[in-house]
# Entry
Amino acid sequence: MGKRSIEVGVIAAAGKGTRAYPRTSFVPKPLFTFEGQSILERNVALMFETLKVKRLYIIVGHLQEQVLAEVARIRQLYPGRQIETAQWTQQGLAADVASLRDRISGDFALVLGDEFYWDTNHQEMARVWKRQTRARALIAILRTSLLSDIRKNYSVELSGSRVQELIEKPEDPPNDLLGLGSYVFSRDYFDFFDSTPPASRSGVVELTQVIHRMAHQSDVRAALLKGRYFNINSLADYYAATYSIRSEKFNRYRISLIMPAFNNEATIADAVHNFKNQVHETLVLDMGSTDRTAQIAARAGARVVRNAPPESMASAHYAPAIYAAMRAARGDILVLATADGAFRAGDLGKLLEYLKDCDMAAGTRTTRQLIEQGSNLSPFYRWLNVFFGKLVEAMWWAQEPRLTDIGCIYRAIWKESFLRVASGLQAQDRTYCLEMVVEIMRFHMRCIEAPVSYYRRYGQAPDESWPEKWRYFMSVLRLILRKRLQRS
# Structure
């Protein structure tokens, strides 16, 4: 047999992902995103750009409407490429692959749709496959110092590059070789599938059983890859992978600070300088100030923006203008803070560390030890924030939120995440703080609260009257009920 190439690719994107509940009740695992791309999009790129397949089949099943929509979007990225879908059998991955026997006439690659590869050299698989002309199958492996990763996948025992044994989820892995969800098969796969009995524990033919049978009766090889690999079994796996990747490149992200300001000439210079060395740009959103706020902010090095005619900027909580400023910001990370000195840059590092693990890190002013004497946050007001936070938790229980402050402006959010929810942001007043949190949840993303210091404010108008406060909290209640009744 001469050298062969991999003509066809298969991506398994059908499973329910029950171990990643509750997120997988709303979003299929192949559509989990990393750095703005779904796992499915990344694996399609791996197939076309690295393994150089000519035709691709994507097996769909659970929440297939969402997967099909993502496939339609990906097709636009690869005009002229053949991308087809196939239905799952609900008899396990091995049977799903076997169902394509009438569509595949040569060698094919298989990648599991919930596995995320970061800087891996999958071209090594194509190179080994061309050289090992007698091999009936090829599996990708990776060396790891974490035996826990092998226990969650499968272990591989080799003689040279030839596979001797595969053990699914071994309690005591025999070596440091981690079996990956990337494979190459000849058409012999289908015959071996037919002759492999169902597993006693699952009642279906399992893929590792088929490969194990091939290894004992023919020639199965391994390709040792380099790079990073994440098997997204659970939400904890997803969050850990997200944190790991973001941490590695966090110093490359640009940070934009947005400060709504209304007659803050006494504090704006200090506020801008306080954050200056921790952000890449500062946007001061002038909300129609009648003093020298805008001029002082500009002299301090901020970019001053006005997003509406002055006559419609009477409120220091004009939400549409704040949303517009966030869209105009150039950074990868958007930070909101006040211009009155209530929040300080000392807490920014805390928010950014949490942001590596979520879509938005929101401050909470409910830790008494962090509230400066003389601030305007009374105990009653603080506990009302807690009450409404718990109401939101109850309303969106499946999203597992933990909220204690629905009115804290100090927060950090990925701009990518903000743009995803931007179409649902419709608040006109200061309920925008809560609206952003609710929309993050409605889009099945993650918000984490972090305790922040709250300082005495200067240069602001007197505190609101009780009727004004009650009107605000009634508007919060209306927002919660309206958002809960909307379709996600």
Summary: DSSP finds 16 helices and 20 strands in the chain. The radius of gyration is 27 Å.
